[in-house]
Amino acid sequence: MKLYCSLSSPFVRKVRMLLEETGRGDEIEIELVKTSPMAPHETLRSANPLAKIPALARDDGPTLYDSRVICEFLDAHFQSGLYHAGWDSKVLEATGDGITEAALQITYERRFRSEDHVLEDWIAAQMGKIHAACAALNTRWMSHLKGPLDMGQISVACALGYVDFRHPDAGWRQGNEALADWYASFESLSSFAATRPE
Fold first, then answer.
1. 140 with 160, same domain?
2. Of 43, 78, 113, which residue is a domain's last?
3. How sure is the predictor about 45, in pLDDT bands with cuts at 50, 70 and 90?
4. Of 78, 109, 133, which marks where a domain is finished?
5. Secondary structure of the chain as H, E, C letters
6. What is the pLDDT, as a whole number, of residue 28?
7. Which Pfam families does the annotation name (predicted)?
8. What is the structure's pLDDT at 68?
9. Which of 104, 170, 179, 191 has an alpha carbon 20 to 30 Å from 134's alpha carbon atom?
10. What is the rounded average pLDDT of the residues 156-171?
11. pLDDT band of 118, cuts 50, 70, 90
């Protein structure tokens, strides 16, 4: 199998963390691609019509895309048990992915619009989603986050790592001390350190 990816993508990081945690990364060929909404990579687009990463080309079926689809497929393929909490694992993964999507919207707004056309209200709305999700994690999900490792935790950690990477002044830790402490502890995981964006 071949994984199309960029090492700075938080969605790719989720998949790479799964591979690190399972110790099966040597079974997947890594193909680094440079792609963006405005300039999609042609080889990637032939594998994934949306030209998004990550995309997992399989030997025996169509290419899989969307990090949640890929992670669930690999989890089943490797029997790694990273969805052991069922729907809770999946909802927490969706929450982390939602934070990532909001942070990406801010990144794209600033990267692909000229400075005089950047919509600050749009950026503020996306930042509001990040803060609301972090508050929910801090008040409702700490017992799960502190439990056995699963894809929900990986998704949340990759999302917060991306916010720090691209938007270091987001201030998500303020008022979310339990979440901030959990994240500080999670950063010590070898799989998280090994997949840090460049």
1. yes
2. 78
3. confident
4. 78
5. CEEEECCCCHHHHHHHHHHHHHCCHHHCEEEECCCCCCCCCHHHHHHCCCCCCCEEECCCCCCEECHHHHHHHHHHHHCCCCCCCCHHHHHHHHHHHHHHHHHHHHHHHHHHCCHHHCCHHHHHHHHHHHHHHHHHHHHHCHHHHCCCCCHHHHHHHHHHHHHHHHCCCCCCCCCCHHHHHHHHHHCCCHHHHHCCCC
6. 95
7. GST_C_2, GST_N_2
8. 97
9. 191
10. 97
11. confident
Better pLDDT: 97 or 36 = 97
Residue type at 179?
A: L
Euclidean distance between CA atoms 151 and 172, whole angstroms: 21
| CATH for 117 | 1.20.1050.10
Q: How far apart are alpha carbons 64 and 102 in whole angstroms?
A: 23
What six digits make up the tokens of 134? Answer: 């972090």
**Is the pLDDT at 103 greater than 90, yes or no?**
yes
Q: List the domain range (segments joined by +) for residue 110.
A: 87-194
User: Do 182 and 131 lie in a common domain?
Assistant: yes
Taking 80 as the threshold, does the pLDDT of residue 39 lie above it? no
- Tokens matching residue 60: 């025996």
Any idea what the CATH number is for the domain that residue 49 is in? 3.40.30.10
Instruction: Please say if the pLDDT value at position 34 is more than 90.
Output: no
- Answer whether 96's CB lies under 8 Å from 162's CB: no
